[in-house]
């Protein structure tokens, strides 16, 4: 008995709908994603169960490393420029256009005003290395404000609605954090938020 041959047919799948869906998903994630500003020093924040979110705009981020070094900055480059103008006028520091360009490209302020010009003369790669050895001074200048306090005041002058957020490492000594908070309280900055990682495990217990 002869075998019946079944005619083979090519199967063609239209991939157009899948391509459309992938394009829409890609656009969605690009539009809704929040890009994080790179930090000058890697800091691992302690865990907590607080679910309060830090505002995405008008925030002066204050970073404290395990060694107690302090950095500050905001994502708004216009505010950063205004802060720099206030500080250079106050301390009599002259910066050239290239130095100002490097400042605007930097993530946070981390050099004292006496070191600012030399720091901004470096190439961006060298700046990223050098800033890890620096930090804003917390010592008072001639019995007045410290440079850190002056930067906070400059940020408040540049944007009166700015909010303060402190991010410290889980290994940062308590004494360093207490000193920073005392600096803020001395200038009547009593409202600030602490940035922590959400401890999902404790939250579910």
Architecture blueprint of SSEs:
Elements: H1 16-32, E1 47-48, E2 59-64, E3 70-73, H2 77-91, H3 97-105, H4 113-120, H5 124-130, H6 147-158, E4 163-168, H7 174-186, E5 192-194, E6 197-198, H8 200-204
Helix pairs in contact: 2-6
Walkthrough of the structure:
With 205 residues, this protein is an alpha/beta fold. The protein has one domain. It has 8 helices and 6 strands, in the order αβββαααααβαββα. Strands 3-2-4-5 form a 4-stranded mixed beta sheet, covered by helices on one side. The protein has a two-stranded parallel ribbon with strand order 1-6. α2 crosses α6. The mean pLDDT is 77.
Short overview:
By secondary structure, the protein is α/β, with parallel strands linked by helices. The chain is built from eight helices and six strands.
**Termini separation:** 72 Å
Main sheet: strand order: 3-2-4-5
Write down the Rg.
25 Å
Relative strand content: 5-15%
For the sheet with most strands, the description reads: 4 strands, mixed
Structural class: alpha/beta
Task: Give the overall form.
Answer: elongated
List SSEs in N-to-C order: HEEEHHHHHEHEEH
Assembly state: single chain
Tell me how many strands there are.
6
- Can you tell me the number of structural domains? 1
